[in-house]
Structure formats: structure tokens, C-alpha cells
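WARN retry 2 of 3 for item q-0093 after timeout on previous attempt; input resubmitted unchanged.
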Amino acid sequence: MSTSVDTYRTIKTPSEGIFRDKGSKFIAYAFPFTEEEQLKTILNEVKALHPKARHHCWAYRLTPDRAVYRINDDGEPSGTAGRPILNVMLSLELTNVIVVVVRYFGGTLLGVPGLIHAYKSATQEALGAARVVEKTLDDIYAIDFDYLQMNEVMRVIKEYELEILSQEFDNRCQITLSIRQLQVDEVLGKLGHLPEVETTYKRTQ
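OK item q-0093 returned
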């Protein structure tokens, strides 16, 4: 399923999957993932659940750009864990996702083809159990303005049904907004016509 220019497919909530082969057990955990700062927390959470597992391998994708990813084999032979996990995400056209696969060694070596198949299969089980959703690609902007402009700024926000991520009101106010990329030029154009209003790009999500 292909997506339009400013939408992408991701998962709504965490999900799990499991695959067994020759005594080894591969448990996959898939999580929604929007920024790299989440990586340490997620890995620590999974490792706390499985402190005795031999490997905690993972891969993630961020943004619809297929080049924005990281993989980690965590001691498995190079290319046998992180890459197969990533390839499942790519084949399903899912992004803003991290999958961590925990392996308990069963005493029998699986070989390179066996490991690739196992990590791929565990990931497929986890993502197959996930609720997939389509989201718009949004840019995050901080809007700084004088308190006297509040009504005009809020009118633009309401007109485009923009999501407010945070807000601070004083003599100078700041609202952080999520704006769909197809609407960015139009929204910033309207805000730019208001006096004492400044917009600052933060990031894309």
C-alpha cells in the first residue's frame, strides 16, 4: 500500500510476537517511536523484562525517508538480526516504529540463514499483531506573539484545526503547534500577516 506525499503508516500501540526454533526463543516487541531519545528507555524496559536473555537486537525507522534508520545485532553475527528486523518494517511500509527482539539461546546453533529467518519471523509476528494506522506528516512550529494578538492567533488555529502541543501565556505568549505539511505554507502565511507574531520551525514528526 503506497501512501500519499504527506502521510505514513505506523503502529498505534505496542505489540508482541514470538518465534521458536530448535529450542531458541525469539520474543519481539514493537513500539511506536517518534524520536531517538526514546531508544534508551525502551531498551532498558525490555532488558528489565528479560535480564537473562543472551541478545536484545533491535531496529528502528523514523520519518518516511527509507534512509533514516538504525540497526543493532547485539552480538549476533553481522547482518543476521537488525537488518532482517528492519527489512520487515520496510516491506510493510511502516515507520516511526522500533522493534526489539529478545533471544533465549536453546543450545543449538541456527546458522546465518536460520538466524535471519528467526528474527524476521518474530518481527512479522509482532507487527502482524499491531494496529496499523495512517498518520499525516506534520511540522512542529513554535508561535511567539503578543498577548493582544491572542484572538487572531487562536482564530487561525481553530480554522485549520491545528493540534496544540504546549502553550504559555504571559505578556509574550508561545504556542507550539503541529501543522500538517500540506497546510504549512498557508497557515504560516496567515500567521505572518499578523503583527508581532514570530514562527520558529522545531522539527518534523
